User: Fold this.
Amino acid sequence: MKCHEVDYKIIGDDIQVVEVELDPNETVIAEAGAMNYLQPEVIFETKMGDGSSPEKGLLDKMFSAGKRVLTGESIFMTHFTNSGSEKKNVAFASPYPGKIIPLDMSKIDNKIICQKDAFLCAALGTEVSIKFNKKLGAGFFGGEGFILQQLKGDGMAFIHACGTIIKKELNNETLIVDTGCLVAFTKGVDYDIQRTGSLKSMFFSGEGFFLATLKGTGTVYLQSLPFSRLANRIIASAPNLGGSRKGEGSVLGIVGDMIDGR
Assistant:
């Protein structure tokens, strides 16, 4: 495992951009549509997969890329390469207000687990895959934690989240959070869910039926404002945008929202 060594800088405060500096022949991969701007001689190509294992056959690439459909992402990723003889820059932006988190994967045991839409871009060689939570409770009731993304590599990777980012260091400790507020966690942290509390609390606290429980030793990243919560408030304030919950079924839609902590 050896990722390209890219330099970077974060621009902005609440709606950030990450500008990646590429040496000649260096490549950065990104989600489709994430590019903000680039300099001449930075060429880009849409490919199936992240390019971390170029020796894979076509069927293996199709299977690996196809799993990304479960996360709601495109099966294609965009590869940006500096084809010139001097350093060039390419920048990427988050699709919603929030922060970009730079991760030096070599300092976190080459792996991190994050929510399904958190990945923004990374140095070529980073493996971007999905990870199902093996615990039955977390799988059925964990909301956004059911299908997670797994990033593996030894270079720079960048994830993004909505609102303010809170970084928690656990030392054989337990942290309980809203399932939608969980952004990412490193190796050594175990993820599960637990019931909110009494029946009264489950129905009327507004915190949903279940909360995420994180145990162990490692780093946890949280976001102050899950995008789903922001979207629901916007819709609730603008009835013409869909206050009638078309197509979801009124009863099931409300129950689903409570399970997901909305």
